[in-house]
Amino acid sequence: MREKMKSYLAKGMAICMLASLSLVACAKHPSKEQLLALGEARQAAAAAEAQVTQKRAERDALLKQLQEKKAALQKAQAEKAAVSARMSGN
User: Fold this and answer.
1) Is the dihedral of CA 79, 85, 88, 89 positive or negative?
2) Can you spell out the DSSP letters for the chain?
3) Can you give the residue ranges of every domain in the chain?
4) pTM recorded for the entire structure
5) Over 60: is that where the pLDDT of 23 sits?
């Protein structure tokens, strides 16, 4: 009889602990601190996205500049080869 009573008491206490944890952990609405943290996280995400967009534009501009420099180098090398050929032909 006494063991049954201990068993019921232990089960009851476990149920009460779980119920109290679920009430504390699962609030119906977020707290002001949580809302503030969410707002800050959204602002940080927006700033990061803006920075990514800016860096991509910079990268695209640098790639375009690199292609222009490569084209100018090829043109200069071709011109040098033509001049060298004319010089050695004389």
Assistant:
1) negative
2) -HHHHHHHHHHHHHHHHHHHHHHHH--SS--HHHHHHHHHHHHHHHHHHHHHHHHHHHHHHHHHHHHHHHHHHHHHHHHHHHHHHHHHH-
3) 2-27+36-89
4) 0.54
5) no
